[in-house]
Write a structure and sequence with these properties.
Length: 277
């Protein structure tokens, strides 16, 4: 692209949002968030809320913003697992609907942060995702958002990252994700066993890889398509991952005994947290 594009970034205070703001790119990133300040931002914060009509802006401010914006990166979303379906709808589904309305007003394409886990809901999934799976409501909300974009008629790119880890060089992240949390759990010797499904792969990518993919696409005007940001069949198996944790612990003078790997399907459900008082 010959002209430098102005990009509205929703969810600027989130893990992906802050990673995007830390990357060098030939675009102008306008951080959009409910917060008054956004770490790593170099442009003034656009105070808005995707759960509200017109993003919570008055008519004049909404029109003025739409006139400035060339592209929208929609990264705002509720990503915590294990919540009721109705908790995800206001941000992940209706928030996407409002971003679509704004993008239509602005004449801008949308680059949407989805999740690779939507593959688990596909008819081609090797193992059906159980109704009680802790991720199901979150994944379903992301799939619904994707469907809104597909039916909207506006140009859009969908990114489906797998589990994110910290920066590929420094390890930095604004908030630890499940991979870091599990690694910490293992590294402290708090895992009596690991429940796994046979043949499972531990697929995760550095957050800056996702950010670079998004920003390079916008720089080059690649505003339509579906991008799987994963390692896929090249991802490590569980044994290799555990071995890395053990090695890292040894380099820090801590000996870890590898916990047994147990087939998750053969485990009986344990008591609920409320029953262990």
């Amino acid at each position: 692209m010959s002209a430098r594009r102005t990009v509205l970034l929703t969810g600027a205070t989130g893990v992906v949002g802050r990673s995007l703001l830390r990357e060098s790119a030939d675009v102008r990133l306008l951080p959009a968030a409910r917060a008054a300040t956004v770490p790593d931002a170099t442009e003034p914060v656009v105070r808005c809320d995707v759960t509200k009509d017109r993003l919570g802006l008055d008519a004049d401010a909404y029109a003025e913003l739409a006139a400035r914006v060339d592209v929208v990166i929609h990264s705002a979303g509720l990503t915590e697992w294990g919540l009721p379906a109705e908790r995800y709808a206001p941000v992940n589904v209706e928030g996407t609907r409002r971003v679509i309305e704004f993008a239509r007003e602005a004449g801008a394409p949308v680059h949407f942060m989805s999740t690779a886990f939507v593959a688990a809901l596909a008819d081609t999934a090797p193992v059906p995702l159980r109704a009680e799976n802790v991720c199901r409501n979150y994944i379903t909300s992301k799939r619904a958002a994707e469907e809104l974009l597909r039916s909207s008629g506006i140009p859009h790119a969908i990114y489906r990252p797998t589990n994110l880890i910290g920066d590929s060089v420094t390890g930095w992240t604004s908030h630890p994700q499940i991979v870091q949390q599990m690694s910490d759990w293992l590294g402290r010797g708090r895992a009596p066993f690991l429940p796994i499904h046979p043949g499972i792969r531990m697929d995760f990518v550095p957050q800056d890889l996702l950010s670079k993919a998004v920003l390079r696409a916008i720089e080059h005007g690649d505003d339509e398509g579906e991008w799987w940001v994963t390692l896929g069949s090249a991802a490590m198996d569980v044994e290799t991952c555990v071995g890395i944790v053990v090695k890292q612990a040894a380099e820090r003078g801590r000996h870890l005994t590898v916990p047994p790997l147990l087939d998750a399907d053969g485990l009986a459900p344990g008591p609920s947290p409320t029953s262990r008082r």
